[in-house]
Amino acid sequence: MMDIWNFTVQFHGHECNGLRWGYKVATFALEKLKIDKSSDEELVAIVENDSCAVDGIQVVTGCTFGKGNLIFRDYGKHAYTFFSRKTGEGIRITRRKEFDTKDILSANGDEIFDVSEPKEDMPKTARIHKSIECAKCGEMAMETRIKIFDSQYLCYPCYDKIMSDQHLYLNTPLAKNGEKNGNS
Q1: Lowest mean pLDDT among 33-42, 72-81, 155-164, 169-178
Q2: What is the spatial distance between Cα 43 and Cα 148, in angstroms, rounded to a whole number?
Q3: Which helix (H) or strand (E) holds 141?
Q4: CA contacts within 13 A on the Cβ side of 139
Q5: Contact 29/91 with Cβ under 8 angstroms?
Q6: Is 165 exposed, middle or buried (0-12, 13-18, 19+ CB in 10 A)?
Q7: Which of 17, 46, 53, 165 has its CA at 20 to 30 Å from residue 64's CA atom?
Q8: pTM of the entire structure?
Q9: How far apart are CA 128 and CA 141, in angstroms?
Q10: Angle formed at CA 29 by CA 25 and CA 33, multiple of 5 degrees
Q11: Domain segments of the chain as ranges
Q12: Other CB atoms closer than 10 Å to residue 142's CB: what's the count?
């Protein structure tokens, strides 16, 4: 059977420092929380970047977007929060600035990471929502991701396009003078 590191590399497609960081932070988090890899939603990971590290976290922890226990916050930070649903315990792990990245995998996690309390509450368990058809594009979207505009259900991209088009129109000289479609 393939060891977890080699499987992580195979999953990601190549070996790199980002993957090493993710692998190390994930193994460190499991150790600190005294929990095993998540088979369902026992563990939640909140990642604050979309780097190679996230693949390492997925493989080691078992947290995935599909199960709803891998949550992405687009902050661009090397910060990772983990919660154990069994104990209610949570930790936030960040990289120390002064660590030399040569030997990440063999390094002592306590020497390369700072551990603190989470900056947010443990997320609720994932829920399955009904899908609704977008009135503009016809594609199905989760009901929690639908906007209502002019009595129509719209997915985010279609809603954003309408708002963008309206904004562009409202900033034209014709709109500012109260004219519509170029007619006085």
Answers
A1: 169-178
A2: 34
A3: strand 140-142
A4: 10
A5: yes
A6: exposed
A7: 17
A8: 0.77
A9: 12
A10: 175
A11: 4-116, 131-176
A12: 13
Whole-angstrom Cα distance, residue 104 to residue 99?
Answer: 9
| Interior angle at CA 81, CA 76 and CA 83, nearest 5 | 155
Would you say the C-alpha torsion 10, 109, 77, 45 has a positive or negative sign?
positive
Q: Which of 6-10, 24-28, 61-65, 169-173 has the lowest mean pLDDT?
A: 169-173
Say which DSSP state 24 is in.
Answer: H
The residues with which 114 forms a beta bridge, in sequence order, are: 94
Distance between CA 86 and CA 108 in Å, rounded? 26
Q: Does domain 4-116 have CATH number 3.90.1150.10?
A: no
CA distance 170 to 164: 10
Q: Give the length of the chain.
A: 184
Q: What's the token pair of residue 168?
A: 């562009």
Backbone angles phi, psi at 143, to 5 degrees: -55, -30
Q: Which amino acid is at 28?
A: F
Cβ neighbours of residue 65 closer than 8 Å, sequence gap 6 or more: 72
Structure tokens at 83: 């919660």
Rounded Cα gap, residues 102 and 112, in angstroms: 12
Dihedral-angle region of residue 150 (phi above 0 means left; psi in -120 to 50 means alpha; beta otherwise): left
